[in-house]
Amino acid sequence: MGEYAEWISSFVVQTLSGVVAVFVGVWLALIVERKRRAEDLETHDAEAMREFDRALDTILGSVVKNTAEAKRILRALEHQKRPQLIHAAFETSVWYASQDRFIALCHNVDERIIFAQFFDEVRRLQAFVDFRCNLHVSSTTCTN
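Now predict its structure.
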């Protein structure tokens, strides 16, 4: 019976050490996986922030160009004595190309609204300039 008890004792010790090893291994694997996910998330967040900064820089460049163009047109209209053709070179393609990604990355609702409104106004101003140009051309061709 002593040999049998020794065998059972040895079996229990080996089984318990195996179970403890599995639990410790699983626990360590979970810690390592959690740390890896945190690092992946940090890397993803950093990349998303760089992408957002690039999109914002591009959009702000377009805002500056469109604002300068609107001021140029305003000065041209103020100094005209009689209607003339006015050419507008507004840039909306940057906004339309980056709009979806910018909105997905931008956490500030006010910024999203301001940029959307700005480029909607640029689109409307371009439509007005085109309309005025077409009206001027048709009135010029009709009177000749």
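The mean pLDDT is 86.
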